[in-house]
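This section describes the prediction task in plain terms. A model, or a person checking by hand, is given the sequence of a single protein chain and must write out its three-dimensional structure as a string of tokens. No templates, partner chains or ligands are provided. The sample shown here is typical of the held-out split.
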Amino acid sequence: MRRMPRLATAGLAVLTLSVAAPASGATPAGAGFQHRPDRFGQATLTGFASLPATTFVPASDPSGALLGTAAINGIVPPFADQPVQGFSGIARNSDGSFDVISDNGYGNKANSGDFVLRVQRVIPDYATGTVDVVGGVNLTDPAGLVPFALTRPDRVLTGSDFDVESIVKASDGSYWIGDEFGPFLLHFDRAGRLLAAPVPLADVHAPESAAILGVTPNLPSSKGFEGMASSADGRYLYPLLEGTVSGDPAGSLRIYQYDRRAGHYTDQRFTYRLESSANAIGDMISVDRDRFLVIERDNGQGATALFKKIFMVDVRDRDADGAVDKTVVADLLDIADPRHLGGTASTFRFPFQTIEDVILLDDRTLGVVNDNNFPFSSGRTPGQPDDNEFITIRLTRPLR
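The expected answer:
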């Protein structure tokens, strides 16, 4: 079986910059920076593979009981097994496989109590256009480290406990995972067992955690750590909120720095400014000590998908506007496809509502994966549930 090219490690170097948090009167979303789109032209599709939407973990627990029994995009719940779906974070393994995390399940805390949180191990085969699921681990808390009540008495974690959206794999094989319900940082061993109590973010609470703590929420529901990068030495994590904290300028998102060695957040903080306050981010990875790649997208799918782009962001803030500088490196709705790898058209579109995975393959090649929100999203074909598509794209210029 043909394997994917070896990846550059996500998170290539330590960020050592200090950019102050924006003042309350900072520039609104979409203003004050230069994109310099001439730096990168139209990216080219170099690989396409897909995992069918109706892929399930064999001999696993039933799921989807709270979705009712009416068909959703032709799929009738509940399901006899756990679906392999909703990839919201990706990490590379040395054998050519990838670890991907399925997010909180069926869209919210109330309907996802029977969706088991899991790291899936997959291998895309671009020669055949298929994706093999070769294993995975459930996320669990056998030591009782979560300080609030869990859904299952056996302490297997579910989509009603956490909304996991971002992942960094450490050199020891353990996983750091960003959650949106807290927002929390979660540290699991290679077998998926929680190693420490969830790390909260001081003074920032989504409604889900605010209800547990009895405090007032200041972050929208499920708008916690959607993206997270790592420094090359693994010491620092850089989680990125998907939502705007109350009191911050509309469309501004906070990037934090967490010191794994010290076990706490540092005083470093950066600001990512959305092109539109209606947009959201999908993922973030490190390129070098000063730069990240960030997926920013609108909420449309299919014909209504109008904005799905990957930005290079530079935290040096050279225009001194209080936010990271942004340059478009790829428009995911306008990818050249001269070999017709993704269909009969010469232009390939990645028209999904949620695109939540990007990873470096080499200095000019990126891997990108959608979150198919099974069974709800139907961006590829109306009325049919989206597959999980794995694509590779080549940029017009090296990232250097």
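For orientation: The mean pLDDT is 91.
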